[in-house]
Design a protein that fits this description.
Blueprint (H helix, E strand, L loop, with lengths): L2 H25 L3 H15 L3 H12 L9 H8 L3 H12 L1
Helix pairs in contact: 1-2, 1-3, 3-4
Length: 93
């Protein structure tokens, strides 16, 4: 495998792990449940797991929601966003 291929694999794995962490934080679920939810979203939408994970992480970070697949991630997990905003507001006070 080329160095580029290894870097891409590591990058995708890192983003997937981050997305799993987002779901764990938002849902209060286990790592396995979060991965199963992410995998289910991939099966439901046909969006690749790396792309779906990146879109979820971008939403969690408050990135531009026009980024690729963010609309799909928003439709799946948008209901969790207000909870996140409320938690951040409470943390600031």
């Amino acid at each position: 495998m080329s160095e580029f291929g290894r870097d891409a694999d590591l990058s995708s794995r890192t983003v997937i792990d981050m997305a799993i962490g987002v779901l764990i934080g938002w849902r209060g679920c286990s790592q396995r449940e979060a991965f199963e939810e992410l995998a289910g979203a991939v099966r439901e939408t046909g969006v690749g797991i790396g792309s779906m994970a990146r879109a979820l992480v971008e939403l969690a970070c408050g990135a531009d929601q026009s980024a690729p697949h963010c609309a799909v991630a928003l439709s799946l997990w948008g209901d969790l966003m207000p909870k996140r905003s409320a938690l951040m507001s409470a943390a600031r006070n």
